């Protein structure tokens, strides 16, 4: 989430609707984990029902799913469509760096993966680094507004 927040903070000054961009991008950056019982967003009634039909890092972690939701949003609430795409794609991109990887072109079997172990030392280093960068960017944005 801290890496996603970094991306959101970087793009925020260029957004026409910064508040909508911030909240939609932030929520959509964690939304792919709605199919995981270990995630905070995955601990609600809807998620539990969804998990009965899909596996974690399956269809919900695919580009097809992302673009389907994007198209729906574009037709229903256009101003939220790009922030959704922004946040969701950051999540998918970052999950490609994990050992487990992601099947971006679900239902095809090809996984995009790398070497970062979830909960490992590399992930912790990245977390701390981007937390510090987020604090810096937030203060820059805060002082820019005042």
Give a description of the structure:
This protein is 60% helix and 0% strand. By secondary structure, the protein is an all-alpha fold. α2 runs parallel beside α5 (78-95). It is globular.
Structural class of the helix and strand makeup?
A: mainly alpha
Total beta-strand segments: 0
Measured as a percent range, the helix fraction is: 55-70%
Number of helices: 6
Cα shape? globular
- The amount of beta strand, in percent, is under 5%
Low-confidence regions: none
Question: Roughly how many Å apart are the termini?
Answer: 26 Å
Cα Rg: 16 Å
Q: What is the number of domains?
A: 1
Note the run of SSEs as H and E. HHHHHH
Global mean pLDDT: 89
Largest sheet: none
Give a quick precis of the structure.
The protein is an all-alpha fold and 146 residues long. It is built from six helices and no strands.
Write the layout of secondary structure elements.
Elements: H1 2-11, H2 18-30, H3 45-51, H4 63-76, H5 78-95, H6 121-145
Helix pairs in contact: 1-2, 1-5, 1-6, 2-5, 4-5
Keywords:
6 helices; single chain; 146 residues; mainly alpha
């Amino acid at each position: 989430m801290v890496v996603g927040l970094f991306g959101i903070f970087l793009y925020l000054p260029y957004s026409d609707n910064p508040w909508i961009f911030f909240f939609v991008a932030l929520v959509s950056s964690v939304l792919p984990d709605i199919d995981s019982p270990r995630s905070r967003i995955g601990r609600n009634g809807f998620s539990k029902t969804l998990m009965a039909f899909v596996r974690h890092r399956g269809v919900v972690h695919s580009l097809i799913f992302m673009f389907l939701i994007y198209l729906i949003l574009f037709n229903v609430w256009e101003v939220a469509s790009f922030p959704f795409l922004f946040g969701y794609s950051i999540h998918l991109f970052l999950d490609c760096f994990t050992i487990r990887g992601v099947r971006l072109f679900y239902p095809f079997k090809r996984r995009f993966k790398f070497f970062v172990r979830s909960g490992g030392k590399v992930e912790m280093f990245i977390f701390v680094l981007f937390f510090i960068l987020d604090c810096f960017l937030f203060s820059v944005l805060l002082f820019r507004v005042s």
